[in-house]
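hiii, so i know i said id send this last week but things got crazy w the move. better late than never?? heres the sequnce for the chain we talked about at the cafe, plus the structure i predicted for it. fair warning i was half asleep when i ran it
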Amino acid sequence: MMKRIISLFLTLILLLSFTACSGNFAQVDLKEPIVLSEDGIVEKNVLDKIKNENAIATFTGKSGDIKYEWTIFGSDLADTRDVNLSLVLEETEKGIKVKFSETEDLGFPALLSIHLNERWKVDGATAFDGDTAVYSVSITGSKTSILNISVNKIVAECEILPDNEKAPESTPSTESSLNDKDDKNDTETNKTDDYLSDVKDNDDRVYSDGNATDQDKYKTDPVPEGKPMPVEPEDQEIDKKKSYTCTFSIECSTILNNLADLDPDKRELVPSNGVILAPTKVTFYEGESVFDVLQRVCKEKGIHLESSWTPIYNSAYIEGIHNLYEFDCGELSGWMYRVNGWYPNYGCSRYQLADGEVVEWRYTCDLGNDVGREGTW
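okay and structure toks below
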């Protein structure tokens, strides 16, 4: 009898020891944001849980009145260890200083999102360690800016500085609903911006003089002064003897700031840095539209693309890219396109490309407000 009691006692001790060693492995709910402890340590067994469940976990912290989040993808984890994710954030005269508590490289990419209490009216930012650029920073957010950094290599500290401020938008309210649905906007008169003011010799497009006051027959509000007028697909004249280059990219980083709204079945589709196609120089023929090139790029790169034709707007509407569709991350979510910093207020089938332009396809979770689209629809 005594031997049996001793055996049971030893078994209990072993069970308690195992539980203590496994820490809060079983108690962590990866579906909800996890508040970092005061020391900022995320234990190895928690990372192992993320890895084993192939989950996406978010860890939140605060430095002063600035909130920050780390997003970690289980698919990116290999060898794991305890990591310290706490930060010290300090606003500077020009930007924000970031001090990392972790002293070693993480060994896996993690998205760091810093929620500012103001809005930076710039397209992007860069983190510098002294004079050396160490991180590229994408900016999302609606009323205030969120600075997003893909971190693997750790520096002791860096300062995030906004890139050159954007040229003033021609109008705050003429971009399309999501990407190429033309909705009503206010009629505030604005000055010509600098994005397309330097017209190249081979650019024979017609530019708006800003004098129109009514919608066209495809429900497009007046095109801002200095912006190219739409070219109807049936009027396109493609000359394959003349080829030019432009830059294309596709990204969905806003989803990483809104994971709670994302369709759970789509989580594994979201890249850990939000980039589906990094900025890539591509060739196009004279007269081709943004839609023409998007179709070709997606086919060449093996990227899923689904679109539909909307006769009322005389343009293709982009429903999904990379199997991420409109409404997959909230009722205001979907794809938009931007050319040289401007969100056109007409469909991508009607935007005729010019040499050297920069085209960005961006997923929005807030009808464009979180990707730099200004004004109201």
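btw The CA atoms of residues 177 and 183 lie 6 Å apart. thought thatd interest u
miss u guys!!
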